[in-house]
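testing teh design pipeline on a random one, pls ignore if ur not involved
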């Protein structure tokens, strides 16, 4: 059992998570005030959520187009064989490629989905040819362009 699964979340934990999901930059003072908690209690709760790995990290999201990377795509990767060490090695290799935003190891016809942001079609082709299909374990790859991306309602939607 992971640390996150060890202690159940209560209603206050869920309210804190919902507030932080909405605004990760909120100050502890504002968070405590909004939830009707003492600042020390609120800080302790947030620290506990981090220690238990319920809150895994805090990140900023950068607009790829503002960095000259306006083209996004999902590259579907199919493997020739599925031996554990080779799958793990490929997963690590894919995640380390520059311009890769996320890598999903999935079940079904495809084995990996690789979300990338690049300058243009040539850069997209280069990722496929130089970083994906060069691995002997890869049987094939198919690329889908992303026309538009929207956030979902999230884990705490009610």
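output:
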């Amino acid at each position: 059992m992971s640390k996150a699964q060890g202690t159940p979340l209560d209603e206050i934990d869920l309210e804190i998570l919902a507030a932080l999901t909405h605004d990760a930059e909120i100050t502890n003072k504002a968070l405590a005030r909004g939830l009707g908690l003492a600042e020390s209690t609120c800080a302790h709760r947030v620290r506990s959520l981090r220690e238990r790995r319920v809150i895994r990290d805090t990140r900023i999201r950068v607009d790829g187009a503002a960095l000259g990377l306006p083209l996004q795509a999902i590259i579907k990767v199919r493997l020739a064989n599925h031996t554990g060490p080779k799958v793990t090695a490929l997963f690590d290799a894919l995640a380390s490629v520059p311009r890769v935003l996320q890598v999903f190891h999935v079940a079904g016809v495809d084995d990996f989905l690789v979300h990338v942001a690049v300058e243009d079609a040539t850069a997209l082709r280069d990722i496929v040819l130089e970083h994906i299909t060069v691995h002997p374990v890869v049987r094939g790859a198919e690329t889908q362009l992303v026309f538009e991306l929207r956030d979902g309602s999230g884990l705490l939607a009610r």
